[in-house]
Description:
Layout: E1 25-26, H1 29-39, H2 45-68, E2 74-75, H3 84-87, E3 93-98, E4 101-107, E5 114-118, H4 120-123, E6 131-138, E7 143-151, H5 152-162, E8 171-175, H6 183-192, H7 209-222, H8 237-244, H9 247-257, E9 266-267, H10 278-282, E10 286-287, H11 297-315, E11 325-332, E12 337-348, E13 355-363, E14 374-379, E15 384-390, E16 398-405, E17 409-416, E18 419-427
Parallel strand pairs: 4-6, 9-18
Antiparallel strand pairs: 1-7, 2-3, 3-4, 5-8, 6-7, 10-11, 11-12, 12-13, 13-16, 14-15, 14-17, 17-18
Helix pairs in contact: 1-2
Amino acid sequence: MIHQPTSNLDFNDYLDWHSLNETRTELLPEHLKRAVRLAESIHLSQQRWQVYLCALATLGFEQWLKERAPELQIHSDSASIWQPATANLLAVACNIQVGAFKICVITASVLTDQHSIPHAVFDIPDFAAHFYVLMQVEESEQQVAISGFINYEQYRSYQQTVRLQIEQDWTYTLPQSWFNSDSNALLLNLRCLNPDAIQLPANIPSIETNTVTALKQKLAIIKPQLQNQYPWELLTINEGITLLSNPDLINWVYKAATPSLVQPLINVGLWLNNEIDRVAQELGWMLMPLPALSQLRSLRSLQENFDQIRASLEQQGVYIPPSARGAYCDLDSEQTSLRMYAITWEVTETPDNPEWTLLIALGSQPQVQMPNTLTLEVRDETKQLFEQSLLDTSQGILYAQVIGNWNERFWVTITADNTVFEIPPFGLELKGT
């Protein structure tokens, strides 16, 4: 269900609303249903409401055009507003096609004569339009109306005069006076104007690879925050331009912001008592044998494989105490296979600041060739703690060791050649579930 954000406005504030003009168009029930379905795919509640209104504005504009100028062909299915990953960042409808013209539909403010509009619709070529149409939405009345329009060259002229500044939320503030309120003039332009009369911005050169790489790294660090905060609260304006100019990054941010279900916890606390939790069992984890049991023939091969890893780690200064306990899990895909070892032990036993450590090491499965390349990443709830790649797995062991308080959890991501394995979080709870 879509809920309108609460407001502190009193009755007198409503006197400032613009009454709908002669372009008033009734929304159909299917319009409302489609807008709701779209809004449900948007993650942040305030953005969800804005996307819902823009979807209604887009459908109302299409309905109005079909009624007033049925000879004009409009195609809006490819509009940015219907792409949840893009709409999650931009609550506007770019890339609507009317004949040879590109249209951008923007939801007008109904409380002031100042409109907050994402700068990307003007400054990033992929989103730029011949005409920008302001649509007033009366959601409670299920009606929309055209509030005004401006073409791209008019925007450029105004911009050169007043030098609009990009706000912290990646928007420009444009006055209503910049927009032509005559809807008949818009129809005349769409019917008679040559599209070449309005020069849209040329595609900008590709953003340098190192700039994109740096942004990817930052996004990986702030990934947990993307579920609760807007990207413009976490990134600079220049980083926002890089993001919005890169469809792959737009999709990455959308997936990162997807509210995750409560993830199962791999409880390594039980391992210290030679027990394994249900979640780990269901994921295929097996406890490492105790030294006394490892002499059994059925377990000897497993212990020998891990002893090789232990010896390699000790050569690099990593010591695993006798009190440590661990488990292993085989990771398989159609392209590659490997074995992941997770070892844990208590670092301090003082009640004031108990800590534990998690050691992750990657090895091969018996009689199976290791992947050619490996990348290991470990993060906690707020930041990346470790990332390292091994471009030649014959040259050593890839491992990571992290230390945390008892209430901390660690997420592990492994990339083997081109296959990514996301491991549920590890945590230490001495009482099993």
